[in-house]
Amino acid sequence: MSLSSASGSPAGDSLKHSDGPWTSASGTAGKLSASSDKSRVRLGLAHESVASAGSGLSAVAALVAVRQSWEERLTSVRGECDYLEGALRTVAKELGEADSDAQKAVRRVKVPREAKSEASR
């Protein structure tokens, strides 16, 4: 059996996990969490004086409702991204440990000299 590597060429008969994509995805989720929280705060600051400045206007109530809706969405996005950041980091760690454990187990297997030379051909 020949498995493809990331480059598209055969990688041999072994499957190797890489924590790189998982770690990268975890970092991206963390950045998105921070960005969504920053946006939520900026949205609140931008609307601080809307109620007092627009008193008497019927559009103010609608604007406040829209702002609250967006704040809820951004809070939800942040929560999901916080969860994903940790979960993806855990996957990267566990896959890396699985590779390490498998490599150690393979190294403990005693292979006769003749089998080693045939395997290297």
UniProtKB/TrEMBL annotation:
- In this chain, the stretch annotated as Disordered covers 1-38, 99-121
Give the Basic and acidic residues compositional bias ranges: 111-121
Q: What is this protein called?
A: Uncharacterized protein
